[in-house]
Amino acid sequence: MFASAVNLRVADLYGAKAVAPEGAGPNPGAGAIAFASCDRGVSPKRVVLEARSTLLSAGRGSLLVRSRVTLWPSEALASRNLAAFASALGSRCELRYGGTSVSSLSVALPGGGRALGLRVAVASGGEHTGEIGYHDIIGFVCGPAEIVLTSAGFSRPVEPQTERRLLKVLFRRASDARSDI
Fold first, then answer.
1. Which domains does the chain have, with CATH numbers?
2. d(CA 142, CA 117)
3. What is the pTM of this model?
4. Fewest CB atoms less than 10 Å from the CB: which of 8, 72, 134, 156?
5. What is the C-alpha radius of gyration for the chain, rounded to an integer number of angstroms?
6. Distance between CA 54 and CA 78 in Å, rounded?
7. Pairwise pLDDT comparison (30 vs 66), residue with the higher score
């Protein structure tokens, strides 16, 4: 299966351990539907399949990483959804839904492509109460698949070289497995 071939694994992040299993994405709830309406993305009800990787933790819990593969009915819908999320309107929606600051991200991919996304800063809770959590959500499209890396760093953003390396891993795997979509 394409998603299994692409998604991150424990060995992809030095010193990582699995803290939550891989699995299917959740059924779209009211929040996801409202966000897609807000950023003018594609309704999550149109998703064909969503698979999330194992949640990885490294750096004594100060870094969390997960990938997801979302299969849409067409490449056009996958591209439209990612572009809407990474747009100025998508940034405003993130602020409306709880982010304290939002900035755009763009990462070069092999072959001249670009991964697009947002960095959302939020006040953290739980064991990180009082710290700022930096959530980077960066994705690219491969055929009808939207591939997204989500990384969270506490007190400081995740190192850009870590995100670039993981995005390259995802891009290489997606390119190699494209015929399996």
1. 2-180 (3.40.1000)
2. 15
3. 0.93
4. 156
5. 15
6. 22
7. 66
